[in-house]
Design goal:
One of its GO terms (molecular function) is uracil DNA N-glycosylase activity. Its EC number is 3.2.2.-. InterPro entries: MUG/TDG, Uracil-DNA_glycosylase-like, Uracil-DNA_glycosylase-like_sf. The radius of gyration is 14 Å and the shape is globular. It contains 5 helices and 5 strands, in the order βααβαβαββα. The chain is α/β, with parallel strands linked by helices and about 160 residues long. α3 packs across α4.
Length: about 160
C-alpha cells in the first residue's frame, strides 16, 4: 500500500494497517464504514469531504497517510506483537526522514503495541517519534462504537488546532 507522503508535512496520519478493501483499491481508509474521511472534513482539516480515491489531495493541505504495519488483514487483531514492534521501528525511521510536525497514530491500541507504551491514552503524548510530536487519535473504524462521528471530529479538531500553532 503506497504512502501518501512528502517532506515537512503538518500532520502525518498513521493507520494501523491496510484493510483488505484498502489493499484492493490502493486507497487508504477505503472501507465505506470507516469514518476517517468524514472526521478529517468535519474537524476542519479539509474544506470538503474527500473520497478515498482523492487521497493525493491531502498533500496540498500539508497532510499525509502511512501505516504502522504494511501487511493487509481483514482485522487488526490478526497482527502479531512483533509486527507492531517492527512497524514502530520502521515508522520512527520514516518520520525522521520525512520530518512532519505531528505524527497522528489512528488507534490507541496500535500506538501502545508499536511503541511499548501501555499507559497511552487518546490525545497528545509526552514523547516524540522520529523528532515529531505525537497525537493518538481514536480508531475511526465503524467497529469502534465507543467514538461517535461527532466525538471523532472533535478529537481530530483538537489535533488540527495544535498543528496550527
Amino acid at each position: 500500500m503506497p504512502d501518501v507522503v512528502a517532506d515537512g508535512l503538518r500532520v502525518l496520519f498513521c493507520g494501523i494497517n491496510p484493510g483488505l478493501m484498502t489493499a484492493a483499491t490502493g486507497h487508504h481508509f477505503a472501507r465505506p464504514g470507516n469514518r476517517f474521511w468524514p472526521a478529517l472534513h468535519r474537524s476542519g482539516f479539509t474544506p470538503r469531504l474527500l473520497l478515498p480515491s482523492e487521497q493525493q489531495e491531502l498533500l496540498s493541505y500539508g497532510l499525509g497517510i502511512t501505516n504502522v504495519v504494511a501487511r493487509a488483514t481483514a482485522r487488526a487483531d490478526e497482527l502479531s506483537a512483533e509486527e507492531y514492534r517492527e512497524g514502530g521501528r520502521l515508522l520512527t525511521l520514516k518520520v525522521a526522514r520525512l520530518r512532519p510536525k505531528w505524527l497522528a497514530v489512528v488507534g490507541v491500541t496500535a500506538y501502545r503495541a508499536a511503541f511499548d507504551d501501555r499507559r497511552a491514552v487518546v490525545g497528545p503524548q509526552a514523547r516524540t517519534v522520529g523528532g515529531a510530536r505525537v497525537w493518538v487519535l481514536p480508531n475511526p473504524s465503524g467497529l469502534n462504537a465507543h467514538w461517535t462521528p461527532a466525538a471523532l471530529a472533535e478529537e481530530f479538531g483538537r489535533l488540527r488546532e495544535a498543528a496550527a500553532e
